[in-house]
Design a protein that fits this description.
Two copies of one chain form a homodimer.
Chain A lengths: L4 E16 L8 E18 L4 E3 L2 E2 L3 H10 L4 E5 L10 H16 L6 H15 L5 H7 L3 E5 L7 E4 L5 E9 L2 H6 L3 H16 L3 H14 L5 H12 L4 E3 L3 E7 L2 H4 L5 E4 L6 E2 L7
Parallel strand pairs in A: 3-5
Antiparallel strand pairs in A: 1-2, 1-12, 2-5, 2-6, 3-4, 6-7, 8-10, 8-11, 9-10
Chain lengths: 279, 279
């Protein structure tokens, strides 16, 4: 590794989903809708063999798997303002950012979709995500119509650009939820996706998301109370899948008295950062 | 139309291509590689029925077709720093921006890929572009692997982010070139695409592009001389398909004594602009 590479990957909150397990991790994935966020993950690749997350040495299985798949040894510096394990797809973003940045720093270039497939497989194998990587590769308001990595999966998007606020009370274990009975989850997720593809608007996404969380009994007490408070103030909010996190549109959370982090829908997907002065 | 909508679409210079005509404009298109540019087209939709380009009343066939397909009447204000008809995909960008912005201003929402298909069809039918729209929907360095609108076409990308400079000496008629003998063009374009998918790097794109322009005899005297000057100064440049336009990477053109416009590879595709203050 004699060059450096730097990539930005948007965060991603899933509003609702249906899991689609498969033996082949490239075919496994999820369908559903979420928001790509301008609060995301920056990955810098340099010489070495240490992975750090916000300055602390860290082990992120999906990142190690990506480096192994690319047959590269490198130091990976991951920086993010997002809470980890709280439903923002940080591990998927770290994996995807590593794939982009490490390839840019190496002499063996690859097309973007191959890098997305490598990162998707790594995230699925690590059990840390089923659909974040393909959503983070697209950006905007990704609509995962068919599960899996490119070219198997299919991701469309809802054209929308809003301010987004979020508050996180902590993490939830993706693995615990997905190891339970997922039949009801799958049915609710499929119904939700049908509702949103019929009316692809952000208002429909938020209303459908709240119905999905209620039906699948995924609300925690704290998140349920926060969403109720926002709704009583006339705002749009729901729960991030899967974390004890509330996200809302516009000034929904601050209007209801919370002190949220503020970002916006990030229009693009994962991308390299410029390495020279640009106009 | 009682709401407004505003979209940004990157410009797009094609480095090389092969035309793939078809009866159905959704299947027609091109394969090839280009650069999406941060110099692009902004489209604002308001009440009315007038189309303006940089403040002047204008008739852009693809824009009219998009409005008709969406069954909307609107005023369309198109602003761009790019030269028109010089190989930057301005008409495709105007069509795609109109599709996004007009949908955002209406009550009938649609998924992004449907809007891309509507704009692609309009650009193909108007004879103003074969692959710009799908490239502008993806952003970055789009690699058009299969021709046509989604879900028929397939667009991958080369992960890259560079400063881009360009100088334009005028326009070339896309229709004239494409109405000639396109067999040699197609063969050269297919070979070029094979070379770049084998080594998906920007250096390979530029070298392959110059070979393509030589082989297909598309150089004008002025463009050929300019590219030669840049090469003698050690810079990377080639000719935009199809315009009398030279584009280069980094400071290639200014280093060679030209006074170029300066922008960069735009990492994202077409997107709505925020309508509220965002973080």
């Amino acid at each position: 590794m004699d060059q450096t590479g730097r990539a930005f990957v948007p965060g991603h909150v899933t509003a609702f989903f249906s899991p689609h397990p498969a033996q082949d991790p490239l075919l496994a994935g999820s369908r559903g809708v979420g928001l790509a966020l301008s609060d995301g993950v920056t990955v810098q690749i340099t010489d070495g063999d240490v992975v750090t997350l916000n300055g602390e040495p860290s082990e992120i299985a999906a990142v190690e798997t990506v480096l192994a798949a690319l047959d590269l040894t490198a130091s990976v510096r991951i920086e993010t303002p997002l809470p980890v394990g709280a439903g923002f797809g940080v591990s998927g973003a770290a994996a995807l950012g590593t794939a982009f940045a490490a390839t840019a720093a190496s002499d063996r270039r690859r097309l973007a979709d191959e890098l997305v497939a490598i990162a998707h497989r790594a995230d699925v194998e690590a059990g840390t995500g089923l659909g974040d990587v393909v959503a983070q590769a697209r950006g905007g308001v990704p609509v995962r119509l068919a599960p899996g990595a490119p070219p198997h999966g299919r991701v469309d998007a809802i054209p929308a650009r809003r301010r987004v606020e979020y508050v996180s009370f902590g993490g939830l274990s993706t693995e615990t939820v997905l190891s339970g009975d997922t039949e009801a989850l799958t049915a609710a997720g499929e119904r939700a996706l049908e509702a949103v593809t019929t009316d692809p608007s952000l208002g429909q996404v938020m209303e459908t998301a709240r119905g999905f969380v209620r039906e699948t009994d995924l609300y925690t007490e704290q998140v349920s109370a926060a969403v109720r408070t926002v709704r009583e103030n006339g705002g749009e909010a729901s729960m991030a899948m899967l974390g004890e996190t509330v996200f809302g549109l516009g000034t929904a959370l601050s209007d209801a008295g919370f002190d949220p982090a503020v970002c916006q829908i990030h229009p693009g997907g994962a991308a390299l950062e410029p390495t020279e002065p640009v106009a």
